[in-house]
Each structure stands twice: as structure tokens, then as C-alpha cells.
Amino acid sequence: MKWLSLECSTPQASLVLMEDETCRWTREWEAERARHEHMAEIIDRARRDAGWAWEELEWMVIGRGPGHYAGLRAGLLTVQALAAPGRIPVTALSGIDAAARSRMREKNVPSVLVLGDARRQSLWWGILHADTLDHQPTSWSVIKRESLTAILEGGHPVATPNPELIAACMDVRPGTSILEPALAPHALDNARLAWARRTLPVEPEPLTPLYLHAAV
Predict the structure, then answer these.
(1) C-alpha span between 32 and 8 (Å, rounded)
(2) Rounded Cα–Cα distance for residues 83 and 106 (Å)
(3) In angstroms, rounded to a whole number, what is the distance separating the alpha carbons of residues 2 and 25?
(4) 140-152, pLDDT tens digit by residue?
(5) Peptide bond before 181: cis, by omega within 30 degrees of 0?
(6) Checking DSSP bridges between strand 141-144 and strand 122-129, what pairing results, if any?
């Protein structure tokens, strides 16, 4: 099976072309304010560089956040537009979920608390467990920063794309470990999680941005 995975929830976007579970081609690029206006052209150039015809693509995977709304919306709209003519299936998943699960494997930890900046003195969060690594998508919630202490009581190590901010918020509970480096969603992590889930009875995530920041 030839398929692609795209991640553009941050200004540092990424694309991988996969053949079954093997990565055949990868590219990363940076777009100001995560707009990614030329995404369709980048994908088409990648396809041509790999020597693949559109008719050979059987699946597309797209990260849906949390992240920058402009990039999330652009990515979701782009893959759906490219997939529509050939009716290629599209799967959306949380790029942060995929990145955090990859970090769990790297650090060999049984669970992790994922935290991110939701702006306006708020944080988004979710807890991942190793025994559900390839199962249901993570449930994300938003809390006020002053409520963080109660969540930290579980003793899970923390993974975050915003380590300096989270470290400052955690001054009330020293000793909680923050897994380094900062979480950075990547198309290859998304691809690995999507491939692991593809035959499991997992409820599909909607093809909409997972946007947990307060409107500003």
C-alpha cells in the first residue's frame, strides 16, 4: 500500500510518503504563522519526486491538532481536496497524541501527562497509558492553570510542546519530571500511529481541527 501522512499544526510542517509501514520519502518545511499556502504543490512535488502516480495512493493521514488553527484547517482542506477525485480514504488523528506516544516508547515510561498552552491562563491536557498505546484516541480537556496541581497528583511524567511555560506553572509541585525534548508533532509519528490503529476497532476522529486554544 502506498500512502502519505501530513502534519501542519505548527509552522514546522512535515510530509512522509509510506509504503505499508516503511517510510520511502520525507520532507519538512517552515511556513510563517503556520499558513502553509503551498501545501498542495509540495505534496504533488513529493509524489513526482518519489515517482508515484496519484492513482497509486490508497490512503491519506492528516494531523488534526492541537495546534495552530490556520495550519490545521489548511491541512485538512488540502488532503480532502486531493483525495476527493479518486475517493482516497482520509484519516485524521491528533499529532500531539502521536508525538507523545512516540516519546513514551523512547523513554520507556508506562504513562505520561501531556500539557500544552491553551492561552488566557489555561492549559490543555490528556493522560496516555502504554497499555492503550494503539487504541482509543486521547480525550483532551482544558483547565485553568491554577487547577494544574490536582492533575499533577497522579505522578505521571509530563510531555509538552511548551516546556518552559509548563515548568513555570509547576513551581507549586517541584519534582515532577518533564520529558525532554519538547513535543513536536511530525508526519512520521502520525503515520506510525495510524498504521498501528488501522485494523483496530478505534472510533475514527472527525476531519475537523482539534483547536484547544482560546479565541484571541
Answers:
(1) 12
(2) 33
(3) 11
(4) 889 998 888 888 8
(5) yes
(6) antiparallel
